[in-house]
Automatic annotation (TrEMBL):
Taxonomic path: Eukaryota, Viridiplantae, Streptophyta, Embryophyta, Tracheophyta
Entry EC number(s): 1.5.99.12
One GO-annotated biological process of the protein: cytokinin metabolic process
Annotated source species: Gossypium raimondii (Peruvian cotton)
Protein name as annotated: cytokinin dehydrogenase
Flavoprotein in keyword set: yes
Length: 512
């Protein structure tokens, strides 16, 4: 499809002149995709967070890397325009928006590539940066019986969107985040160059783009490591009254050898009451079983902890073998007697579990509510303090959504990527996933998040924001710490005019 370009008419001569300039540039580009004035379809000026809205000048649906390169070069030819790649818009704080700039809808490139390869004897898949992980899963399993090793909990996110952050779920303790599971990228830099990069070819761009918050280039293709897909997952939840016992078991499980542990380890905090969203009913996996609080010790506090575990197996495995293997692993854990819940689900059903929650939430009308979410990485050395102050006091009545907490291992993350992490080997991901009705309470919840971050800073906790959101350069410098200089150098090399990902608000567009 040849780009059809409309012209925006403004009152001001200066703006009309600007639009003429932009129109002229675009008319000369010969794009294969399409362009929309402003944001007629309304997708580019909103995101999952529902907290910010910035209208772009154009929404562009490219056909591939060539189109994207032309758009970036066109922006570079103007004194002020910026370019934001939009994955599936599941950011919280407007990170995929471009106020008065170009938003590139990467989903239009979702079908590109998709090729199975063998690299050094191991299977990999080439996928588009605009592909949704749920499509990658379905295709890989149904066509090849293979699957990526490391996931996010929810899969309606794009490959480029999660690789620009990290991509974390219950497999990351073993394989590292998604950024540790790609071997090659194709990237369109802020100069408009289409560059293939890997650990050995253009490594600065490769590691810069991974976890790079879109600052150095737009990922148009990723080569993702695969493994044989299991058929089934034994999905288990066990409950703890004491944080120390919960963390001891969680840390033990993520530190054990591959054949001596579960395949998936996560956890969450919930309220010690019968609230349907925040309390006991949020725990049971099998709707026929009720949570029985009579099992809880007298000493249980306002919040309880749940370890969520997954054990992979094949249809050809004997049921007794699976039962024995799971019992052996569960036997060593110190959860509250009687508070265990388990079901067997297909591997795809397990990985698509949040999709079902999304369908329910859409039916209840809460999915589209604002989401003032807060995600942090907190070092093991400070997690007890964090629990005591944040979980047991600040959010002890629940947040109207999940409160995730589970340990990760720093050694599974590559320090050459752009992701900022706490210092210690074991750190916890903490995710406060709030669903808040529209209205004044949204601002209150944003303020509560700010209080938590302020408290972490004041107490000198070893922590970083995940999916970070700061407005002031000083905060970004503190966030990146001793990686700030490397970040600035990479920016100067790959996006010297700060054209890309303006919604992150790290660098200001320059005309140099
Ligand atoms: P967008 O929100 O569209 O973009 C995010 C940023 O990346 C923007 O700055 C954008 O410009 C940039 N970007 C987008 N595409 C590209 C590209 N191809 N190349 C370069 N830059 C690009 N995260 C986890 O790690 N684990 C989870 O389990 C998890 N679960 C989630 C569940 C839900 C319901 C939601 C809403 C989010 C979840 N996230 C999780 C967070 C998610 O990984 C990030 O919000 C991610 O950025 C969303 O991907 P997206 O494709 O929608 O990206």
């Amino acid at each position: 499809m040849i780009a059809c370009l409309g012209r925006i008419v403004h009152d001001s001569d200066a703006e009309s002149k600007l639009d003429d300039d932009v129109s002229t540039i675009f008319n000369s580009l010969n794009l294969q995709g399409s362009i929309e004035n402003g944001d007629v379809s309304g997708i580019a000026s909103k995101d999952f967070g529902g907290l910010y809205s910035f209208k772009p000048l154009y929404l562009i649906r490219p056909s591939g890397a060539e189109d994207i390169s032309r758009i970036v070069k066109a922006a570079a030819g103007t004194p002020h325009l910026t370019v934001a790649a939009r994955g599936n818009g599941h950011s919280i704080n407007g990170q995929a928006m471009a106020d008065g700039g170009y938003v590139i809808d990467m989903r239009s490139t979702g079908e590109n590539h998709f090729k199975l390869l063998t690299v050094n004897g191991s299977p990999c898949i080439d996928v588009s940066g605009g592909a949704l992980w749920e499509d990658v899963l379905r295709r890989c399993v149904s066509r090849f019986g293979l699957a990526p090793r490391s996931w996010t909990d929810y899969l309606s996110l794009t490959v480029g969107g999660t690789l620009s952050n990290a991509g974390v779920s219950g497999q990351a303790f073993r394989y590292g985040p998604q950024t540790s599971n790609v071997t090659e990228l194709e990237v369109v830099t802020g100069k408009g160059d289409i560059t293939v990069c890997s650990e050995t070819q253009n490594p600065e761009l490769f590691f810069g783009a991974l976890g790079g918050l879109g600052q150095f280039g737009i990922i148009t293709r990723a080569r993702v490591k695969l493994q044989p897909a299991p058929d089934m997952v034994r999905w288990i939840r066990v409950v703890y009254a004491e944080f120390e016992e919960f963390t001891r078991d969680a840390e033990l499980l993520v530190s054990q050898k591959e054949d001596e542990s579960f395949d998936y380890v996560e956890g969450f905090v919930f309220c010690n009451n019968d609230d349907p969203v925040n309390g006991w009913p949020s725990v049971q996996l099998n709707p026929d079983q009720e949570f029985n609080p009579a099992h809880l010790p007298q000493t249980a506090g306002p919040v309880l902890y749940c370890l969520e575990l997954g054990f992979h197996y094949r249809n050809s495995d004997q049921p007794s073998t699976v039962d024995m293997a799971v019992s052996r692993l569960v036997r060593g854990l110190g959860f509250v007697d009687g508070l265990i819940s388990q079901v067997d689900v297909s591997y795809m059903g397990f990985l698509l579990r949040v999709k079902r929650a999304e369908q329910d939430a859409k039916a209840n009308g809460v999915w589209d509510n604002p989401h003032p979410w807060l995600n942090l990485f907190v070092s093991k050395s400070d997690i007890v303090d964090f629990d005591r102050t944040v979980f047991k006091k600040m959010v002890k009545n629940g947040i109207g959504g999940p409160m995730l907490i589970y340990p990760l291992l720093r050694s599974k993350w590559d320090s050459r990527t752009s992701v900022a992490l706490p210092e210690g080997e074991i750190f916890y991901i903490v995710a406060l996933l709030r669903f808040v009705p529209k209205g004044p309470s949204v601002e209150k919840k944003v303020a509560e998040n700010r209080e938590i971050v302020k408290w972490c800073i004041k107490e000198g906790l070893d922590f970083k924001l995940y999916l970070p959101h700061y407005r002031a350069k000083e905060d970004w410098k503190r966030h990146f710490g001793n990686q700030w200089t490397r970040l600035e150098k990479r920016k100067a090399n790959f996006d010297p005019m700060a054209i890309l990902a303006p919604g992150q608000r790290i660098f200001k567009r320059t005309n140099q």
